């Protein structure tokens, strides 16, 4: 069954679609934006678009514009007309992508997208295969049991507890639950704590799949601004005080996508305000260990029992392992454990054993990852500075993301143009609400060193393509007037 989008809902998703810059006509701009939303997952395949007349009225454009946009999408195979269901978006394209005006055909198949910069996730840690081998040797010792464990293996919970203790947060193994990664941990905690339709405080921009989670739970989102220099802590404290949300979701260390962190003082302020408001704060520490040159800070969990931490080995070891954790009060974990049975029946034993092997020498793994990311970040920043003097580059003291200001260039237009250069990007608005951050792009520092120059060359070609299509918009591109958060 198709998901039905009203014209109002589609308008919200479209954001500032007219100003993307790359499209020569209004109907093309509308078609391009809908295509982008489909490609980056904001409009799921199968979504039913509103009737042409209804959308034209809502967007204050002529009916011909919407007809033209739908016809463009239909010709490109992104829209099908289903009898009785109207126009339905589809990613199963049946016709080839039309040739661009400059004669370059955009890639049609996944394999022709050579560089995937859509995920800020690095390849596996070099020591991972050896850790798996060691775990495999130990596995038969666990086979006499059923192997279903909602809390996690005691030895891994103890290892995660040590991970917190080493960072200055006293933690017992029964304050830890092992999960299938941080995303799973987030969903488990949010589902447990979130009253349907309740408010959730988030940073903006933020990690998109957290927003997906809260939206799936029908949350009402309250957004506090964050940029590459830090979070607007006044806004966080004020929203906690005035709106008393049951839940807040923050990334205290190397926030995704901005890379900024809360100061120790800000952590104390936020924890105090959350306690007064009765708010549980989910501290997402997925990138917390990737400290490239900032220096240690006290984990948010040290500031009180209302902080629930989620973490993962996805960034330090490998996303494909799917091991993460929740650290929180025993009673909270116990009730999440009971609820978890309706979702899954525990984390695979081999992966848990592998995680325990890796955490035995966490320092070595983290150091290797930091050295790799630091070299890649430095090379990427240097290359960007040379090729794109009008862009605003972030300090990026940790984590994987560079949150780059594009000057006057549209992130959505760049993302579409980059596809024709074999690069997959995620445009800035995917990290915001209601179309914000059109002048930003997140570039993850996960490109291997030998690939950085070819990636930058391709990116420059994509940027040129956007600029060539609407030259007047881009001449004034400057660093100083680009920051919108
Ligand atoms: C901030 C943040 N939280 C959670 C996740 C999901 O992590 P995992 O792979 O452990 O589910 C990611 C992955 O990109 C992330 O960046």
Strand order of the largest sheet: 6-13-12-11-10-7-8-9
Principal-axes geometry comes out as: globular
In the CATH scheme, the class of the largest domain would be: Alpha Beta
Share of helical residues: 40-55%
Number of alpha- plus pi-helical segments: 16
Radius of gyration: 23 Å
How many individual domains?
A: 3
Largest sheet composition: 8 strands, mixed
GO molecular function, one term: DNA binding
Family: In the C-terminal section; belongs to the class-I pyridoxal-phosphate-dependent aminotransferase family.
Protein name: Transcriptional regulator
Pfam family, one: GntR
Tags for this model:
485 residues; alpha/beta; Arc Repressor Mutant, subunit A; Aspartate Aminotransferase, domain 2; Aspartate Aminotransferase, domain 1; eight-stranded mixed sheet
